[in-house]
Design a protein that fits this description.
By secondary structure, the chain is of the alpha+beta class. It contains 10 helices and 13 strands. About 45% of the residues lie in helices and about 25% in strands. The two termini are about 35 Å apart. The protein binds (R)-mevalonate.
């Protein structure tokens, strides 16, 4: 039986969430939390998916659902099922898929994109097909379109390629190889949110206030040019200031809230270079850029109110994992960090 495991990282958006949906440039980074998908060819001509973290499992024949536990698992796993169905065209083939992840869900860190990318790669890999990143991205977008509303593609692209990237919808992706960042903190608001809901909220804002949205888009376009120059020049102080400005623009389009604003304020008062919401907004994580000398004190002060994780850029995007024991070690090491 062919068995293949792929993993893919989480992501943060340094600049440009939501604006990227409307064609602006975003800068995003893969980070050191990963999801894993193991796909195994089976003799039974069914597709089964099990999510360890969510405690869901479902099995389908080509005619339909044959088993799920607990109820509604098949509905929640449907986006992953659609990706597999798009790849496995031969009705005689069977596939069993297991998913596990270190990435907090529903919090703007690209958990669904990461799982979808690893899943598409593992499925292609088990069938003995070429695992081309561009194909993996196309298949992963099937799930992303079901989960989010009008995904720009930034999430699947950054997690598939790894590193820090510049992304423009329809205009491709470039890795910014020479950019390095000081310490990065992930601060959790504790508020659940859905990216799709936030994307719809921005769509309504744009519809109701087209000239205001256009004005903010122009401001963002100036900001991102400067941010890219500051990143390339290694000017972390300016990068931090521009992150805060980006947060203010996101607040103007309606995706921040008092909790996220006060998290950004607290990070800055504690000595961070910059902070902003990341991903869809409305909850989830705030990212904060901090110099090494103040990292511990900023962490302590944020940790009094919020869960804080330190993270770093993951140069690896999608990668094939050699064997099960290694995945478990990698994932344990990342958790222990
Ligand atoms: C989500 O990580 C980023 C958003 O801009 C949505 C998207 O680009 O698909 C909010």
């Amino acid at each position: 039986m062919e068995q293949v495991t792929y993993s893919s990282p989480a992501k943060i958006i340094l600049f440009g969430e939501h604006f990227v949906v409307y064609g602006a440039k975003a800068i995003s980074s893969a980070i050191n939390l990963r999801s894993f998908v193991r796909a195994t060819r089976t003799y039974r001509p069914t597709i089964s998916i099990r999510s360890r973290n969510l405690g869901l499992s479902a099995e389908w024949t080509h005619e339909g659902l044959v088993h799920e536990s607990p109820r509604n698992s098949s509905r929640r796993l449907a986006p992953l099922h659609e990706v597999i169905k798009a790849i496995v065209r031969d009705r005689r083939l069977g596939l069993s898929v297991e998913v596990w992840s270190d990435i907090p869900r529903g919090s703007g860190l690209g958990s669904s994109a990461s799982v979808s990318v690893a899943l598409a790669a593992a499925t292609l890999g088990t069938l003995g097909a070429d695992v081309k990143v561009s194909d993996v991205i196309d298949y992963a977008m099937i799930a992303e379109r079901m989960i989010h509303s009008r995904p720009s593609g930034v999430d699947v692209n950054v997690v598939a390629h790894g590193g820090i990237v510049r992304y423009v919808r329809g205009g491709g992706i470039d890795r910014l190889e020479d950019v390095s960042l000081p310490s990065l903190l992930l601060v959790h608001s504790g508020l659940p949110r859905k990216t799709g809901v936030m994307v719809e909220r921005v769509a309504r804002f744009k519809e109701q206030k087209p000239s205001k949205f256009a004005e903010l888009m122009v401001m963002y376009e100036g900001l991102i040019e400067e941010a890219e120059r500051a990143l390339v020049a290694g000017d972390s102080k300016r990068v931090g200031e521009l992150m805060v400005e980006n947060h203010h623009l996101l607040r103007e389009i309606g995706v921040s809230n008092p909790t996220l604003d006060s998290m950004v304020k607290l990070a800055l008062e504690s000595g961070a270079l910059g902070a902003k919401l990341t991903g869809g907004g409305g909850g989830g994580f705030v990212i904060s850029l901090v110099n090494e000398e103040v990292r511990d004190s900023v962490m302590r002060s944020l940790a009094k109110k919020y869960r804080v994780l330190e993270t770093s850029v993951s140069k690896d995007g999608l990668r094939r994992e050699p064997d099960q024991s290694r995945h478990d070690r990698t994932s344990r090491a990342l958790r222990e960090g």
